[in-house]
């Protein structure tokens, strides 16, 4: 029996599949070593994979240790998703080293995040690089 070869045309990544989009700020790339993610975005796009009541997500200083998979470089990195007292969420523990420095991220670069339920990981991509003026 011969196997039939099927041609599959690979489509470019659909940017609409990135449920959390963010333009990086100075505090996301400086020595703070954290990526600030808006509360509503986390509660809408990540928390439902962990709890039936998203408002209870990461209460009492709970932290989520997650693999953050860089789809551009096909590498996985262990980071922590934590909730601040301000109710904002941050990715910490190796953010600066594993993403800012390694990917040469700059202010106004746009990044995307999404929860991959199949692989139980957070996925990351650089959607757009900010063109430096000068």
Automatic annotation (TrEMBL):
Its main location: nucleus. One of its GO terms (cellular component) is nucleus. It is found in: Nucleus. Keywords: DNA-binding, Nucleus, Transcription, Transcription regulation. One of its GO terms (molecular function) is DNA binding. InterPro entries: B3_DNA-bd, B3_domain, DNA-bd_pseudobarrel_sf. PANTHER family: B3 DOMAIN PROTEIN, TRANSCRIPTION FACTOR B3-DOMAIN FAMILY-RELATED. This is B3 domain-containing protein. It comes from Forsythia ovata.
């Amino acid at each position: 029996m011969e196997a039939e070869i099927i041609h599959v045309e690979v489509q470019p990544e659909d940017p609409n599949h990135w449920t959390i989009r963010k333009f990086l700020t100075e505090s996301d790339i400086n020595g703070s070593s954290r990526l600030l993610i808006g509360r509503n975005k986390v509660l809408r796009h990540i928390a439902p994979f962990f709890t039936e009541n998203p408002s209870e997500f990461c209460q009492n200083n709970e932290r989520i240790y997650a693999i953050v998979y860089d789809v551009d470089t096909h590498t996985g990195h262990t980071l922590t998703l934590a909730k601040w007292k301000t109710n904002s969420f941050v990715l910490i523990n190796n953010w600066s080293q594993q993403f800012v420095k390694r990917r040469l991220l700059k202010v106004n670069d746009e990044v995307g995040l999404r929860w991959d339920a199949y692989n139980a990981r957070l996925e990351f991509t650089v959607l757009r690089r900010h063109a430096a003026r000068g």
